[in-house]
Design brief:
6-stranded parallel sheet, 16 helices, 43% helix, binds uridine-5'-diphosphate-glucuronic acid
């Protein structure tokens, strides 16, 4: 069995490392952040993600070890997965500095070994990065030739927050982008050993592998902006409901039912960043995609539409306090990166609105951003009490349970359901609006 090294124990790296270690592979995880490393050593997952704690406690100090020593860890391993972050720069382009730094260090280790090691780029990187940035760095530092002396491939990751472990255990597709057959053979053997039966598997060029990741996320983001565009038309037509329309068009196998949930727009650490990164990359090639620019624009505008819906409801109020239900970018996570709630709250504060917020998990992260500018409530009823409008921004299960009666403690019972968690037909007794529901 090949020995595996995972560099960067963030969300993807931790999930990958613990799942691979759970299948009896020997895995070393490299992490340079001392606090994060200590937490992991003490069996504490440094972020919230279902099941990762269970996989960590089952493997740590058995098949899974962690270290801050990259050179030693790479030296002892056969397959090295690079899982470091590729954040956005202020102009939207992709910051490759972590990938470059890690590859420099990996290259110096390759110089010292006779073994044929395979370097796998798991981080999301723009097309051409593997061949035109990573390969020259590795070759320069190692003074060796890729394909002949060491292997190199791009292996994009498709897992989602909230179901990362299950996605890793049951991928819908494994993509390996590499120039050489030896690397493809090693990776096929690795994935055959990892899964009881090999999932759908695609061997292709590094450029295609890089593009597949961006195209995948860009398509899903576009599907969301598409349904949000339909929702915004529905809002203007009495009798129209985007939920019914999404369900109907989703029956067409050419469209499919998933990612057609209208809402306040997509957030999270991936879609906004990858869309900006891809747009920046494609414009550097001389192509400004009008479609993907619109996907981005519709998404930006969607948060503004939610704010407009709230402000319209508050038009005649002297006092303006809004309760916000849901802060995380989606349910079952405490992640608020690019969450619509951060944009809506900031904009309402600019409009002199007082804010009370509730979220089952994301309050500590939200507090780091808004500190004492807003009021935090542990309970939904506390959050609703004496407010003038409520907006629902995340689809947490408990919000589906709310009835018109639950809004009675509000000063004025006005609700904007931006996530479509409530049944509009049951909200006749209150001033109720929902994204994509024409009144
Ligand atoms: C996304 C992709 O789904 C993963 O396949 C990919 O691997 C990952 O990005 C990544 O590039 O790392 P994730 O960001 O965890 O995963 O979350 P999603 O479940 O895709 O949701 C993204 C956003 O879209 C959320 O704000 C969600 O509420 C929103 N969304 C999703 C909608 O508004 N409507 C939908 O129908 C679906």
């Amino acid at each position: 069995m090949p020995k595996v090294c995972v560099i960067g124990l963030g969300f993807v790296g931790m999930t990958m490392a613990t799942v691979v270690a759970s299948k009896e592979f020997s895995v070393v995880g490299v992490e340079t952040n001392p606090e994060r490393l200590d937490n992991i050593k003490n069996c504490k997952v440094p972020f919230f993600e279902p099941k990762v704690d269970e996989f960590l406690s089952n493997t740590i100090n058995k098949t899974f070890h962690v270290s801050d020593n990259l050179s030693e860890s790479v030296f002892k391993s056969d397959i090295i997965f690079v899982c470091v972050g590729t954040p956005s720069k202020s102009d939207g382009s992709v910051d490759l500095s972590y990938v470059k730094q890690v590859c420099k260090e990996v290259g110096t280790v390759l110089k010292e070994t006779e073994d044929f090691k395979v370097v796998v780029i798991k981080s999301t990187v723009p097309p051409l990065t593997t061949n035109q940035t990573v390969k020259p760095i590795l070759e320069k530092e190692s003074q060796k030739k890729a394909e002949k002396d060491f292997g190199l491939c791009m292996n994009p990751e498709f897992l989602k927050e909230g179901s990362a472990i299950d996605d890793m255990l049951h991928p819908h597709l494994v993509v390996i982008g590499s120039e050489d057959e030896k690397t493809q053979d090693i990776m096929r053997q690795f994935y055959t050993g990892l899964y009881d039966s090999l999932p759908e598997y695609l061997e292709t060029t590094p450029e295609n592998a890089e593009l597949i990741k961006y195209a995948n996320n860009a398509f899903l983001a576009t599907k969301i902006s598409f349904i949000n565009s339909i929702a915004n038309v529905c809002n203007r037509i009495k009798g129209a409901d985007v939920e019914t329309i999404a369900k109907a068009i989703g029956k067409d196998p050419r469209i499919g039912p998933l990612f057609l949930k209208a809402g306040p727009g997509f957030g999270g650490s991936c879609f906004p960043k990858d869309l900006a990164g891809f747009l920046s990359f494609s414009s550097s090639l001389g192509y400004n995609s009008p479609l993907l620019e619109s996907t981005q624009l519709v998404n930006k505008r969607q948060a503004e539409i939610v704010v407009d819906m709230i402000l319209q409801k508050l038009d005649d109020s002297d006092r303006k306090t809004v309760s916000v239900l849901g802060l995380a970018f989606k349910k079952n996570t405490d992640d608020i990166r690019e969450s619509v709630a951060t944009k809506v709250v900031e904009s309402l504060l600019q409009n002199n609105v007082d804010i009370k917020v509730h979220d089952p998990m994301a309050i500590p992260n939200f507090r780091k951003v808004f500190s004492d500018r807003i009021t935090y409530s542990e309970r939904i009823d506390d959050c609703l009490k004496d407010t003038d409008c409520c907006v629902i921004l995340t689809d947490w299960d408990e919000y589906f349970e709310l009835s018109a009666n639950d809004f009675k403690s509000m000063r004025s019972q006005r609700v904007v359901d931006a996530r479509r968690v409530l049944d509009p037909k049951k909200m006749n007794s209150i001033d109720f609006s929902a994204i994509g529901y024409g009144l």
